Amino acid sequence: MPRPIHFEIPADDPARAVTFYRAVFDWKIDRWEGPQEYWLVTTGEGDEPGINGGLAKRRHPGEGPANTIGVPSLDAFVERVQESGGTIVAPKMAIPGIGWLAYCQDTEGNTFGMMEADPAAT
Length: 122
Known about the structure:
Layout: E1 4-11, H1 14-25, E2 28-31, E3 39-42, E4 53-57, E5 66-70, H2 74-83, E6 87-95, E7 99-105, E8 111-117
Parallel strand pairs: 1-4, 5-8
Antiparallel strand pairs: 1-5, 2-3, 3-4, 6-7, 7-8
């Protein structure tokens, strides 16, 4: 059964947001060395319940946080989203060395991501 594996927090000023979340929750937040401006958020130890996430520059006004769900086949789940009345807002894209990602909206307008792990993604 697919589960949430990652969250993303959009920010108008990522540096300010990083400072805030470090101060409030003591989260470990490090700049990702990938091809885009992105910060990896570690919220706890690996043996504790919970998920880690990311922080990025807000892409459009009103963009809110999004959860990403791990799926075994991104193509199959994109199809399921569409068949169930949802929409694809950002089609399948590679996150190099991590996997394949797409963003969708449910029937209520909530945005979420779906990720298929694939270290060979380019």
